[in-house]
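During the reporting period the student researcher (J.K.) took over the structure-prediction task from the postdoctoral fellow and processed the backlog of single-chain submissions. One of the processed entries is reproduced below for the supervisory committee.
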Amino acid sequence: MVMAGADNVQVIYLGELGKPPILSGYLLLKGKDAALIESGPVSVFEDYVKRVERYVSPENIRYIFVSHIHVDHAGGSWKFVKEYPWIKIIVHEKGAKHLVDPKKLIEASKNALGIIYSYWGDPEPVPENSIIKVGDQYMEKEFGVRVIYTPGHASHSTALYHEETGTLFPGDSAGMLIFGEGGKLWPAAPPPFFMDQFLESLKKLQSLKLSKICYPHYGCSSRPYAMLEEAIKTYSELSAFLKEKCREKDGKYVFEEIMKREDCKSLPRSEYFDEFYKLNLRGFEGSCI
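J.K. obtained the following structure tokens:
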């Protein structure tokens, strides 16, 4: 997928990175200059660079926009900066300190992720002078990307909006799409998750002029408004379902009951994916997963 806006910035979908898939990569290309949407974890660094090289030399990457500092989105930032020290990491000010000193992030991630963490790898410190800390509605003018503060998934969550093409990169602020157009919308609600903030953030995104929504997990949809509505519906229904079922049954049974529902039959199953699904149900109030 390649889209170009009036400013001639190309938005390029690089496909899923990692085995099992961990991240969808996106490249912004303007002439010889490039920017990435999310660094991904360090485990996908080499694959990411190889895919970028199909379009541009990695030496031309100027920025990496990080939607939030969870390990699967920003854990590889240090590696990019180490290999290409001119790259600047653009990240919300609430999360920046955890890139500079990732000790607490690593500890919290290991506790929350369990076996998933081993697939993503360890983040290392990013030099503070390699980070551009931004607030809500920050506009990076060269590539035309606006950073929109969208708490709920995390206190440091943002969405990234390329105005010229109307492309929204929501981070984890609008759920996950497994996989791509026509796939299944799944929540991104690891603890701590705040439903009220999440819904308010979605309202911000619904007010934008959109042509496409491109998820880090995984791929794009040309029905952005329908997908944002689907996120509201999915989160609300699963929240209610968990509250009801978890009063009566244990988490293992409730999870399998969710997976047997008609609209979940197409989801891939594996040790990794099952743990990933469970993680993103645990933040709902009353969840027993």
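The committee noted the following: The chain is about 35% helix and 25% strand.
J.K. will present the remaining backlog at the next meeting.
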